[in-house]
Amino acid sequence: MYTKPSATALKRLMKEYKELTVNAPDGITAGPISEDNFFEWEALIMGPDDTPYEGGVFTATITFPHDYPLNPPEMRFTCPMFHPNVYENGVVCISILHPPGDDPNMYESSSERWSPVQSVEKILLSVVSMIAEPNDESGANIDACKVWRDNREEFNRIVRDNVRKTLEL
Amino acid sequence: MSSFQRDPSRSPTDLEILEHQQSVVEAHTSTQLLVGPQEPLAALAKEYRGSESFRAQIERLTQDYQAIRRCRGDGNCFYRAFAMGWYEAVHSDPRRCAQALRTLEESADCLQQVGFESLVFEDFLKTATDTLHTLQCTSRDSPADAEALLEQSFQTPEVSNSIVVYLRMLTSAFLRQHQDDYLPFLEGEPDMVRFCTGQVEAMGVESEEIHLIALTRALGVSLRVVYLDGSPRASESGRPVTIHPFPNAEECAANASSGVVTLLYRPGHYDLIYPNHPTSQ
Question: In B, which residues are within 8 Å of A116 by CB distance?
């Protein structure tokens, strides 16, 4: 829609950042990597309790399009993340990060798509739920899907290994 | 055009057809203004030289209408045309304008009631009210300047699209708030929230009658839609062109004193159309 960064997008991102610093959901921090560029954020997500991800701190970048919030940002984990809904390159694949009309059959019908009434906070909350409850119907990492379905113990072991790696960094 | 070479001996795949359609639509729409200048109805007649039934309908339209204003066919044409028509109908009349501004500001309650956070809509709402407020002030000193400013505002993507986004959010909020009334009219879609996310809030998704009814009811604005469909019946001599009032005949008449918006509908697209005597409607 817009080709260059819009003032609307910038203003909205600044507001969302301010709101997140005041009222961050539990286990999540997020904000611009540099105050010079509000279109590139870093997020830290604590692994949810009672999951193999518990105890881990997972880093991700969030890249916003210049016409945000008309289109959704892209989120990419920058640490090892073995998960059915995260591609091997770290890109997160969940319905809220996809505009409506994109891949109509890939997600459950009830799942929520991106629209301008969503926000970074809603995305991060969805990602935390995704970590806790993988959806192997719309898998992004086929290996992870397979191990998660067929050998839960092995899946938990790989994830816990990754958790240790993220903490060593 | 696409970068891949297609084997001419096989039919194109769905993906290839889709990519081709996309490239044609993009090439066409990106060169068209978001909203054009007013043009005489004769300009419309030129498009339909070969079609007798369309020409007869346009001929009939010239008795009551003098001009059209084209809007870009980018899926947002209904909201954009409606918003511009509404601002055009109120900005020079202090009473109507004050009422329209109040309506816009109060409409935020509807969004809040269905759980939209202010941070997701307040900037878009502010652009919508600021634009109308500036028009009102300009109109007081120079109506001609106000006309130019109106056109310029709706041609500026950031302003124009912000107003479209707000009207989409309001339409969505209104449908969510009154879902018991509207759910029965959604064909094959049992979930209002999903309908709103996918078919209302998303930019570039075209509007159907239910969107028109919800938005005009949410704002209390009279809308008349003139149908130009080239149907052979319409070309029988003297048969009037079909005009649909929104949200319905009764409410359209009751709301008329605060300004009437008239749109021209051709299958799949809305433009603005201007009556000969705007005040007598």
Answer: 120, 124, 165, 168-169, 201, 203
- The answer to whether the CB of A86 falls within 8 A of the CB of A70 is no
DSSP code string of A118-142: --HHHHHHHHHHHHHS--GGG-S-H
**Which domains are delineated in chain A?**
7-168 (3.10.110.10)
CB hemisphere CA count around A143 (13 angstroms): 9
State the amino acid at position A78 in one-letter form: T
State the pLDDT at residue A166: 82
Show which of residues 96-115 on chain A sit within 8 Å of chain B, judged by CB atoms. Answer: 99-101, 109-110, 112-113, 115
**Cross-chain CB nearest to A100 (options B169, B191, B197):** B197
Total tally of structural domains belonging to chain B: 1
In this predicted complex, what is the ipTM? 0.81
pLDDT at B13 over 70: no
Q: What is the mean pLDDT of residues B178-194?
A: 87
Indicate which CATH number applies to the domain containing B153: 1.20.1300.20
In a domain, residue B108? The reply is: yes
Nearest residue, CB atoms, B123 vs list A12, A19, A110: A12
Q: Does B250 touch chain A (CB under 8 A)?
A: no
Mean pLDDT of A23-38: 92
Average pLDDT taken over every residue of chain B: 88
Query: pLDDT, tens digit, for every residue of B255-272?
Result: 999 899 999 999 889 999
pLDDT (average), residues A103-109: 48
Domain range enclosing B132: 33-280
Is residue B10, in this structure, part of any structural domain at all? no
pLDDT digits (tens, 9 = 90+) for A38-49: 999 999 999 999
Calculate mean pLDDT across residues B37-64: 87
